[in-house]
Design brief:
This protein is an alpha+beta fold and 102 residues long. It has a single domain (2-85), classed as 2-Layer Sandwich (Alpha-Beta Plaits), CATH 3.30.70. It has helices at residues 15-26, 54-62, 64-77, and strands spanning 2-8, 32-39, 44-51, 78-85. The longest helix has 14 residues, at 64-77. The protein is globular, with a radius of gyration of 16 Å. Keywords: Monooxygenase, Oxidoreductase. This is Heme-degrading monooxygenase HmoA. InterPro entries: ABM_dom (IPR007138), Dimeric_a/b-barrel (IPR011008), Jasmonate_Hydroxylase-like (IPR052936).
Length: 102
């Protein structure tokens, strides 16, 4: 799993298109399992990418288009970012099937 937290700059020219391309491109990585993303009104963004194993994450990190997007991010789009790579030990969830009755 890769947890990418960001604060973006005012300069966002080309960001949306590049982000869409990265979301499209990562799906071709064998072992990519999906992602979650959240953005606060204050500008903090958090993206969690799920990968089957370290090899899949390494393949994504090494992708030439992704490397260029990283370079552009550091040059223009991000005020700061942090990347955490972790191994999920356990996971569970909950899905409500209908709204509770008051």
């Amino acid at each position: 799993m890769a947890v990418f937290t960001t604060v973006r700059t005012q300069e966002q020219s080309g960001y949306r298109e590049t982000n869409a391309r990265m979301e499209e491109l990562v799906k071709d990585i064998p072992g990519y399992l999906g992602m979650d993303h959240a953005q606060t009104p204050g500008g903090l963004g958090i993206t969690v990418g799920y990968f089957r194993d370290a090899d899949a994450l390494t393949q994504w990190r090494s992708n030439a288009e992704h490397r260029e997007a990283q370079r552009r991010g550091r040059a223009a789009w991000y005020r700061n970012y942090t990347l955490h790579v972790a191994k999920v030990e356990r996971s569970h969830g909950f899905v409500r099937t209908e709204d509770p009755v008051a």
